[in-house]
């Protein structure tokens, strides 16, 4: 399949560039949705969706990941999902496994009396 399908705001770079693509485009879009869950919506609401897609496709632009909002493990996962090389993005099976590990580590910290808890995880 090539180009022209989907919503520009969530479009993987290879789709916008009208290149052939596979399932990893859904991984890219998933990561944008996770980002919005943490942010409470898109961080670039004022920008035109097509302009956002163009910057992601040709300038490798990605949303910022504030150290105060995102746990390091989530930041690493999102960066993997947004990798410019589609073959380097994790599969959903790998994402689920990583999210389960992240959730377990947060639970262990919470059980140990740590201050780390995340209502999303």
From TrEMBL:
GO molecular function: ATP binding; protein serine/threonine kinase activity
InterPro entries in UniProt: Kinase-like_dom_sf, Prot_kinase_dom, Ser-Thr/Tyr_kinase_cat_dom, Ser/Thr_Kinases-Pseudokinases
Domain Protein kinase: from-to ranges: 1-106
Name of the molecule in the record: Protein kinase domain-containing protein
């Amino acid at each position: 399949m090539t180009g022209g399908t989907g919503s520009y705001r969530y479009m993987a770079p290879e789709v916008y560039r009208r290149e052939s693509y596979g399932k990893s485009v859904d991984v890219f879009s998933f990561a944008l949705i996770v980002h919005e869950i943490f942010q409470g919506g898109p961080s670039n609401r004022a920008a035109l969706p097509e302009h956002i897609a163009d910057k992601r496709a040709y300038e490798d632009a990605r949303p910022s990941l504030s150290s105060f909002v995102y746990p390091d493990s989530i930041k690493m996962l999102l960066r993997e999902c947004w990798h410019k090389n589609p073959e380097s993005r994790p599969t959903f099976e790998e994402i689920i496994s990583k999210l389960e590990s992240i959730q377990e580590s947060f639970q262990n910290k919470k059980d140990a009396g740590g201050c780390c808890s995340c209502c999303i995880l």
